[in-house]
Design brief:
It contains 14 helices and 14 strands. By secondary structure, the protein is an alpha/beta fold. α7 crosses α8. The longest helix is centred in the C-terminal third of the chain and has 23 residues. About 8% of the residues have low confidence.
Length: 378
C-alpha cells in the first residue's frame, strides 16, 4: 500500500527540510566546534507553521548522531522542575526546601530555585548543579554534552527563563575556567523556539541579557523553485509523478509557507491516490489547495490572531480588503480613520510580530498566507 509522503502534522519530520540547510549547518558545526561556539545557544523564531518544532526535532537527531544526550521540553508551568527531575541522579530525594521562588517536582516535593536540598547530597542541587552532575557522569563522553530544546518559549514563565539562563551561563563559565583541554570539555547546548514576539520579550528582559549573544535564526518562506523541486522529488520517491508545471503551480499556491507546502502536497497526493492514479494532475493540485486552505485556516490563521489587540485587528482588517494584493499606507489611513502616525506605529508593531511585511515604498502585505482572506471571512 502506498503511503502519503507529506507530513503536515505539527512537529512531524517532513521528507525534505527544504530551505533550512544553513540553520542546520550552524547548529551541527556548533556542536563540533566546542564550548563557546555561538550556535550552542540559539533562538529560532517564526510564525506558526514555519517548522520550528521540526527544526528542534532535527537538532536532536543531529545531537544524538554526535553522541550527545538530548532533552526535549515544551514551555509550560513547572519547566525547570521537569528539567531538574530529568537531570537529577536516580535515587536522589528532596528532604527540605527553602528560599523562594519555588518549583514543584512532581511526586517528590517543592524545591527552591536557589536551594533544593537532597538527602543524597549535602550541597544544594540547583539546575546548574544538576547539569554539572550530569556532565560529570561517565555516560557523557569527553567533548560531548547535553542538548536541551525548549519549544513554545513564549509560554515560559519569567522565573523559569531566569533560572535556565542563569544556569546555562554558569555552565559555560565553569567550562571556560576548567583546565580540561578544549576538545575534551563537556558542554551544554540549548535551543529556544517560539513566536517572533517571544524574542522581543527575552531580549528586553534585563536578567536574560546574555541571550543577546545567542545565535538568532528566523524561519521564513521557502523560495518557490525549492518548493517545486521538493514536490517533484518527493512525489517521484513515493511512486507517483507530477509535471513541472503542476509542481510549480502547487508551489505557487503554497506561497512557500512550510506548513502549507506540506498541506498542499498531502492533499494533492491524496486526491490522486483516491482515484487510484499514479499521476498527480492539475485537478488534483486544485483539489489539494482547496482542502489545504481549510486546514490552514484552523491550524495557522486563527491562532496567528491570538493576542492581537483591537487596534492591531483594525489595521489588519483594513489590509484584508486588498488581500492577496499589497495595501497602500494611504489607504489604511483612510479606512481606519486614524492618523498617519497611528498607522505607522501599528505597521511597525505588526512587522515586528511577523504578521505583515513591507512590500515596497509605502506598501505592506500579509506575511502569513491566506490571512487576509481569512479575516474577510470573519
Amino acid at each position: 500500500m502506498a503511503i502519503n509522503p507529506f507530513k503536515p502534522t505539527a512537529g512531524k519530520m517532513p521528507p525534505i527540510l527544504i530551505g533550512r540547510q544553513s540553520i542546520i549547518d550552524d547548529f551541527s558545526e556548533a556542536l563540533t566546534n566546542g564550548v563557546g561556539a555561538p550556535g550552542r545557544i540559539m533562538l529560532v523564531t517564526g510564525q506558526r507553521g514555519f517548522g520550528k518544532t521540526v527544526m528542534l526535532t532535527e537538532f536532536r537527531r543531529i545531537a544524538k548522531a554526535q553522541q550527545w544526550e538530548t532533552i526535549a521540553e515544551t514551555a509550560s508551568p513547572g519547566l525547570v522542575s521537569r528539567l531538574v527531575t530529568v537531570l537529577a541522579p536516580s535515587g536522589m530525594r528532596l528532604n527540605q526546601a527553602d528560599i523562594s521562588p519555588s518549583i514543584s517536582i512532581p511526586g517528590i516535593a517543592t524545591a527552591s530555585l536557589g536551594q533544593a536540598h537532597f538527602s543524597a547530597e549535602s550541597n544544594p542541587l540547583t539546575l546548574r548543579n544538576a547539569l554539572n552532575k550530569r556532565l560529570e557522569s561517565k555516560k557523557i563522553r569527553k567533548g560531548k554534552g547535553i542538548l536541551i530544546t525548549i519549544d513554545e518559549t513564549q509560554a515560559a514563565s519569567h522565573d523559569d527563563l531566569v533560572a535556565i539562563a542563569t544556569a546555562v551561563q554558569h555552565i559555560i563559565t565553569d567550562a571556560d575556567e576548567s583546565d580540561v583541554p578544549d576538545d575534551e570539555k563537556k558542554g551544554v547546548a540549548i535551543v529556544f523556539a517560539g513566536l517572533p514576539y517571544m524574542i522581543n520579550d527575552l531580549l528586553d528582559n534585563e536578567v536574560t541579557t546574555f541571550l543577546r549573544r545567542a545565535l538568532r535564526r528566523e524561519l521564513d518562506n521557502v523560495p518557490l523553485p525549492d518548493v517545486k523541486n521538493a514536490y517533484l522529488e518527493t512525489v517521484a520517491d513515493s511512486g507517483k509523478s507530477i509535471s513541472e508545471s503542476d509542481a510549480l503551480e502547487a508551489a505557487r499556491r503554497s506561497e512557500g509557507y512550510p506548513y502549507m507546502v506540506q498541506l498542499v502536497g498531502y492533499y494533492m497526493w491524496q486526491s490522486a491516490q483516491r482515484r487510484g492514479a499514479s499521476i498527480i494532475t492539475t485537478n488534483d493540485v486544485a483539489a489539494g489547495v482547496t482542502d489545504a486552505l481549510l486546514a490552514f485556516d484552523d491550524a495557522v490563521c486563527a491562532p496567528a490572531l491570538d493576542g492581537v489587540t483591537s487596534a492591531e485587528r483594525l489595521f489588519l482588517k483594513a489590509m484584508a480588503v486588498d488581500s492577496p494584493h499589497v495595501t497602500q499606507i494611504g489607504d489604511l489611513v483612510e479606512r481606519t480613520r486614524r492618523s498617519r502616525s497611528w498607522v505607522s506605529k501599528y505597521r511597525a508593531i505588526l512587522i515586528k510580530d511577523k504578521l505583515i511585511r513591507p512590500a515596497g515604498h509605502g506598501q505592506v502585505e500579509f506575511a502569513v498566507p491566506h490571512l487576509g482572506e481569512y479575516l474577510r471571512s470573519l
